[in-house]
## 1
Amino acid sequence: MLLGNRIFKASIYVAAWLAGELAVIGLFRDAPARSVYAGITAWWLGAYVAAKFEIDLRSALLAGVPFWIFYVLQALAGKDWFYRDASALSVPWLLVLAGVAALIFLTPAVFDQAVTWSIRKLFRGSSSSWEKIAHES
C-alpha cells in the first residue's frame, strides 16, 4: 500500500477520533463524566471508521506515533489536554501513560482486524451472508 494512502487513512482515523471527542464534549458540556463518554464515543467511532475505510494497523500506527509524541510534548510543556495532572508526573511515568494512551488509540483498528479475520476464518466455504460481508470489507 502506498505511503500516501496510509497517511490519508491515518488522517481519517484521527478525524474520527477528534469528531467523536469534540462532539460529545460540546453536547455534554455540563456532564461530570463527559470525558469518559467522549473517549468511549471516539473509540467506537474509530472502530467504525477503521472498518468502513479498511484502516489497518500500519495506517493507525502512522497516527499513533505522532499522537504519542504530541502527548509527551504537551505534558512536558505543562499542558493537561489529554490527562489531568500529566505535567506533574515524572518523565518515566509520563512515557508509560502516553504509551497506554497510544495503545488505546490503536485498539479500534486492532479490534476491526480481529473481527474481520474471525469472520473470514469462521465462514470460509459457507454461502452465508457473513461470508459476503467479510469479503466486501
Note: The chain has a mean pLDDT of 81.
## 2
Amino acid sequence: MTQHADDIDTGWAVHWTHPGRGEWTADRHGRTVGEVRRDTDGYVATRGRRTVGTYRSLDAALDAVDRRSLMTLQPSRFWTLVLSTINVGIIAAISLVATAILR
C-alpha cells in the first residue's frame, strides 16, 4: 500500500485504514472521503457515493481515490479563497481612504 502523506501538505493528506478483509478506507481529518473494496472484477474505488472505477491492481485503485482529491477544488476551499480575496480588497480600500484623509 502506498501512502503519499510525505509528498503533500498534511492538510490534503489521505490516510488509509484497513477495516476488513478486502476493504480499505480513506479518511482526511477523521472524515471518510473514499474507499476501495476487492470485487470479482478487481478493485472498485469509490469516492463518497460515486464509483470512480474498477482497477486491476490495489495501488491503481488507491491512487485513483487519493489523486482525485487533489485535482478537484472543494467548495469550502473555493469560498474561503473568494472571501479572503474580498477581505483583502476591503482592507486595501480602507487603507487608501485612510491615507487620503490623513494627507
Note: Confidence is low (pLDDT under 50) at residues 1-8.
## 3
Amino acid sequence: MKKGKDKKEEVIDISTLPKINYVTNLLLLNFKNSNLNQERRTKILDSLYKTSHKLVKLICREQIIDFAKEKEIFKETDQRKEINTEELAKAAAAIIIDRSIPPMKEKKAFLDLIETKKKEKEDATIAWNNPQPVDPKAKPNPKAPKLVNPDEIIVPVLDETATELMIVFYNYPWSEAEYQAFEKEKLCLNSITLINDKVLTNNKLG
C-alpha cells in the first residue's frame, strides 16, 4: 500500500503582510479546590470555544506544548519529558504569530481592494470629466467602454483602531517564573480574568 505524500507546509513571508491590532488576555480557571471532574471542565472549555467570535482565539497550555513540539521548540526525550518555562514562552510567542497570519491575510486582501477601488474611481473620474466626442453618423460600438459615474464607486474605509485579533491564553502563564519568561519574549497581557470554583459551580454551561 502506497503512502500518500505529506502536504508541504505553506511558507509565508510575514514581512509582506500588514501588521494587525491584537490584544493578549489571560483566562485563569481555578480548579484547585473544586470537585468538578474532567468531563465538566471539558464542557466548560468547549462552551467557551463555541461562543468565541472568529477573531477570538482561545489557546490552552496543552496547545502551546503541542505547538512547541510541532515546531521543534521543545524536543521530548527519554531524559526530559517536561517543557521548561523559556521554551513555553517561545512557543507562546510563535503561536501568536501563527494565529495572526489569517487576519493579516484578510487585512492585506482588504487593503488591496481599497487600492483597486481607488484606481477605479480615479479612472472613472478622468473619463467622466473628459468624455470622448461622438460622431453622430457612426454606428454605436457595443464594445466601447461605458462611462461610469465615479460617485457610484464606493471605496471601503479601514478602521485603523479596530481590534483584529484577540488571543486568550487559558491557564498560561500561571506562575511568576512563567510570566517572567513570557515578558522576556516581549509579550504582555492586556487583561487577566479569574474564574474561581464558586463561579464555575454556579455556571450553567453544558
Note: DSSP finds five helices and four strands in the chain.
